[in-house]
Structure formats: structure tokens, C-alpha cells
Amino acid sequence: RGVGGAKMAAGSGGPAARELFAEGLLQFLRPAVRQLDGHVHAVRESQVELREHIDSLATELCRINEDQKVALDLDPYVKKLLNARRRVVLVNNILQNAQERLRRLNHSVAKETVRRKAMLEAAGGYPQGLPGK
């Protein structure tokens, strides 16, 4: 059965059909949550690297400005870099919060899967056609 068939079975069948649908839905969501978590982790790492580069560039600009015999006003550029750094830090904080929510969601999905498998086993095993553990 496709997803539509599972929906119909969940709505018209008994508890076993609803459990089967719930199990299928959990199995469907788990890889997506894990993949999204991996992408968020990669973006966070690149954000940290970008922030470090911005800090290094701002420091270098300040050093160049101090070493110049001709007065160059690099302060606006340093301010722009610091503003960009601040935005990177804000995005990183948002990503960190999203990753933590994803981690909790993944944990909940795993916990619910274990709970539902235990319920199915206690009810007399898996329904016909559903693979075991």
C-alpha cells in the first residue's frame, strides 16, 4: 500500500492499522530529521569558520590602519565587518536553537518508535506483512 492506502487503513481499520500507519510515519520522518540535523550542523560549522575569518580580517585591517603613514580611514570597513560578524553570530544562535529542537524531535521519534514496537509486541506481534524488529 502507498501512503494513501495507509491513511485509509488508519482511518477505517482497527488499532493495529493505526499502529502500522504511525510506525510507517515515524520511519518516514526519522531519515529526514537526521539529514536536516546534519545540514544544520554543517552550516553551524561554516558559520563559526566565517566568524573567525571576519575577526582575523578586522584585526588585520586595524593593524594595517595603524601601520599606514598616510591616514586611511578604514574604520567604516572595520565597523561593517563587525556588523557582519554580529549577524553571523545571530544566525549561528538561531541554527543552534533549531538543531537542539531537531535533536529533541529525533529523540522523541526514536522513543515513540520503541514504545509503539513494544505495544505491538505486547498485543501479539506484528500484523501480517510487517517485518519484525
Automatic annotation (TrEMBL):
<comment type="similarity">
    <text>Belongs to the SNAPIN family.</text>
</comment>
<dbReference type="GO" id="GO:0031083">
    <property type="term" value="C:BLOC-1 complex"/>
</dbReference>
<dbReference type="GO" id="GO:0007040">
    <property type="term" value="P:lysosome organization"/>
</dbReference>
<dbReference type="GO" id="GO:0032418">
    <property type="term" value="P:lysosome localization"/>
</dbReference>
<dbReference type="GO" id="GO:0000149">
    <property type="term" value="F:SNARE binding"/>
</dbReference>
<dbReference type="GO" id="GO:0099078">
    <property type="term" value="C:BORC complex"/>
</dbReference>
<dbReference type="GO" id="GO:0008333">
    <property type="term" value="P:endosome to lysosome transport"/>
</dbReference>
<dbReference type="GO" id="GO:0006886">
    <property type="term" value="P:intracellular protein transport"/>
</dbReference>
<dbReference type="GO" id="GO:2000300">
    <property type="term" value="P:regulation of synaptic vesicle exocytosis"/>
</dbReference>
<feature type="coiled-coil region">
    <location>
        <begin position="81"/>
        <end position="115"/>
    </location>
</feature>
<dbReference type="InterPro" id="IPR017246">
    <property type="entry name" value="Snapin"/>
</dbReference>
<protein>
    <recommendedName>
        <fullName>Biogenesis of lysosome-related organelles complex 1 subunit 7</fullName>
    </recommendedName>
</protein>
<dbReference type="InterPro" id="IPR028119">
    <property type="entry name" value="Snapin/Pallidin/Snn1"/>
</dbReference>
<dbReference type="GO" id="GO:0016079">
    <property type="term" value="P:synaptic vesicle exocytosis"/>
</dbReference>
<keyword id="KW-0175">Coiled coil</keyword>
<dbReference type="Pfam" id="PF14712">
    <property type="entry name" value="Snapin_Pallidin"/>
</dbReference>
<dbReference type="GO" id="GO:0008021">
    <property type="term" value="C:synaptic vesicle"/>
</dbReference>
